[in-house]
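User: Hey, my collaborator sent me this sequence without any context and asked if I could get a structure. I don't really work with proteins. Can you help?
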Amino acid sequence: MTTMTETSARFREFKMPDVGEGLTEAEILKWFVQPGDTVTDGQVVCEVETAKAAVELPIPFDGVVHELRFPEGTTVDVGEVIIAVDVAPGSGDVPAAPEAVQQPVAEAAPEAEPEAPKGRQPVLVGYGVAETSTKRRARKGAQIPGPAAAAVQAELNGHGAKAPESRPLAKPPVRKLAKDLGIDLATVTPTGEGGVITREDVHAAAVPVPAEVPVRAEETAAVPAPVAVVADPAGRETRVPVKGVRKAIAQAMVGSAFTAPHVTEFVTVDVTRTMKLVAELKEDKDLAGVRVNPLLIIAKALLVAIRRNPAVNAAWDEANQEIVQKHYVNLGIAAATPRGLIVPNIKDAHDKTLPELGEALGELVSTAREGKTSPAAMAGGTVTITNVGVFGVDTGTPILNPGESAILAVGAIKLQPWVHKGKVKPRQVTTLALSFDHRLVDGELGSKVLADVAAVLEQPKRLITWA
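Assistant: No problem. I've predicted the 3D structure and written it out in structure-token form, which is a compact way to encode the shape of the chain:
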């Protein structure tokens, strides 16, 4: 009978990739293949959810699925093997997969976890490689046994080097977060496995949890779908696990609210002419197939305002104590999806014509509705628009998308009595709210940006005269 050593060349392992920018883990939502299935290069084998989005993973080689290392619902570190494929089927006997790996993670006792032969194993992206063992994650709340704890400590404290016992256990991104927030890790109570300090532990030590965080939504908003809810027997409470996109939203909003000093200004504007322009553009044959709505004109108005006031399009670099001026606009559109709020952005929106901007908005909306927005589509935003008016809300005080300097909230457009040419007439009116980072945007600059957006929406011919 063929041994594992003799057949090892037959098998290729596919590891959890970093599908975002420095993400360290992802949850396996769904497997599309099972052991014994034939797969081809580029075939999607599973769907995973990161802290940013749900992503489909294609496998990069042909073969027959030999083993799925983790069941659906398991959170897996980047670099962990998730599937093994027989790339030379029919060339000999195939060894059975290790029994412990075939079992669901929740059923495998931590002390019984199998270990692969030691060697240079990839670790989390950005951490280099270390002499360690490949193993499955222990159940939540379980204590990591002696050898595993040593491996964790080695990984967390640098390429196999043992850290002093007094040094708190935390991964490099968590250490950087603590440094940025001015938190001494020695004062933080760890809740992670094996006494590891998590990002949530640092945030909890930095600030109290806010009682309420304003909700942002885009006009395509869908009702968020809770997963794995647990209701108490009396039916008086329901608990929904906070993970994936929802967990990332909470962390990002708390981090933004308590890092950047927010200032919000408001203006109420007559947009009757803009609404007439929208109606005319919808009938324009040159724009056939383009998504034309008030949001398109508002987006263009904001781009005009940024061009007239470029200093608003910037970011605060805390590490280097610099203001980073952006000479491009990646325009974010806040969208509520079944997995929570996401903010994909239109790359180089400043260079797009009105039809091009409309096409980009339409594609962004369709992708968000399908839950197919990629992490790359949400990275690198500079300024964001959030449309709360689709819910009939007049206005709000939006929280900045982390790393951005401003966010524009658009309220409901309503027919209201308005003084026009000296007479009270029914006009289409809305309220705009602009939140900005007061470290780099002062009151004058913020006011000019908001006033320019309002001026364009009141007289849309300024899209031409101010171009």
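In plain terms: The chain is about 25% helix and 25% strand. You can pass these tokens on to your collaborator as they are.
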